[in-house]
Amino acid sequence: MLFAANRRVRPFSPDEVDLLISLANHAALAIENATLFEEVRKTAAVHEQLTAVALDGGGPTGLATALAEVLRGSVLVLDTQDRPLAAAGAAPPERAALVAEMAQARERRSSAVRGTACVTPIVAADEHLGTLLFVRGGLDASDIHALERAAQAAALMLLGERTVAEVEHRLRGEILDDLLGAPHRDPEGLRRRAALVGLDLERRHAVLVARGGDHGRRRRVTELAGGHAAGSGGVAGEYGGNTVVLLPGADDPGSAARTLAEALTTATGHPVTVGAERAAPGAAAVVEAHRDAARCLDVLIALDRAGEGACREDLGIHGILLGPAGRDELDRFVRRTIGPLVDHDATRGSDLVRTALTYFTCDGNLGRTATALYIHVNTLYQRIDRISALLGPQWRHGDHRLQVHLALTMHRTAG
């Protein structure tokens, strides 16, 4: 407002009014230019800071810190699932209080303001990559414009990180394919390529094999396992339908497997089972350890221990199946002890092996066994009579009971 007054009462002439209006117009231009200059200054400062962050590889944390310093406020960077990626400033905004504004910003692809908070979507083309939350008293148009420019820089940064992650994921997968599938094709070239992802094949490693769902979930499991492995200088990738993790210098593969299984199960919300084995230096040793770790994983799943992690030493007598020395002998033991049951099921389509194993699992309680098998107790009596006819009446008593139960468990595990 431009105000003019006299010390005495007199009317203003039309020419004087026109002159004052002209002066007010000039003042308006000056104010507008000053506002635009301040907006340009803020935008340039944001651009300069974020460019430096991008060149230095600062990521979301560097972006939040730079934005909080330039705009003198508090910043929270969220991912596509509204999970915090980075925060900076004295009091980062509470996302729970801005749910409606976040939905509005995503829908309109533009900033939404509520009180002292501004929500700005991070968008690339038609893809939502995340959200910027900013809090500071006295927000104006220049602040919002600077935030929108920052969101553009954040989009480029997140896309760049994704591209790098995809390339690294593909490279790790290719190296694991060559290492586990054809380690003798080009040993020297394999060592050089492994070094590109920080894998030294001349060191001892723990080889972990994880499984936790369908293809879509496996990709998520591999990404999480990669982050877990990176903290220990290891690598992770997909091979043979499983997630494979190589951790350098791990002297306790069982503990490493349990830690990884717990972390992946918690992060995905679904059971992720992990088998592990220790590998001596060299590509051939890694291949052998991977084979044993995969067998350990299969045994855990066969024993209904999904969501757990273990190595061969943790499996007790079941771990004998993983060793080549005892496998043939165990196969002969199984055939000798319950061979008639296995053959009867194969030729008659019956279910006597599972019936006997369930009977032992339920501690010989007929009612619980029938319930677990979803059959009438009279049907269970008939099956037990058939088992007794094939194995002899002592199969449920004394030392013979132990032998049959062990053979049944080994048969299931081996299968």
Describe this structure in words.
By secondary structure, the protein is of the alpha+beta class. It is about 60% helix and about 15% strand. A 5-stranded antiparallel β-sheet has the order 2-1-5-4-3, sandwiched between helices. The protein has a 5-stranded mixed β-sheet with strand order 7-8-6-9-10, sandwiched between helices. A hairpin with a 2-residue loop joins β7 (about 235-240) and β8 (about 240-250). The mean pLDDT is about 85.
Q: Encode the helix/strand succession as letters.
A: HHEEHEEEHHEHEEHEHEHHHHH
Low-confidence stretches: none
| Range of strand content | 5-15%
Average the pLDDT over all residues and give the rounded result.
Answer: 84
Counting H and I runs of at least 4 residues, what is the number of helices? 13
Bin the helical content: 55-70%
Question: How many angstroms separate the termini?
Answer: 88 Å
- Gyration radius from CA atoms, angstroms: 34 Å
Which properties best describe this structure?
single chain; 59% helix; five-stranded antiparallel sheet; alpha+beta; five-stranded mixed sheet
Structure described in brief:
The chain is an alpha+beta fold and 415 residues long. Helix content is 59%, strand content 14%.
Which helices and strands occur, and which strands form pairs?
Blueprint: H1 14-56, H2 59-71, E1 74-78, E2 84-88, H3 99-108, E3 112-114, E4 117-124, E5 127-135, H4 141-181, H5 187-196, E6 205-211, H6 215-230, E7 235-239, E8 242-248, H7 253-268, E9 273-279, H8 283-302, E10 309-311, H9 324-348, H10 352-361, H11 366-373, H12 377-391, H13 398-414
Parallel strand pairs: 9-10
Antiparallel strand pairs: 1-2, 1-5, 3-4, 4-5, 6-8, 6-9, 7-8
Helix pairs in contact: 1-2, 1-4, 2-4, 6-7, 9-13, 10-11, 11-12
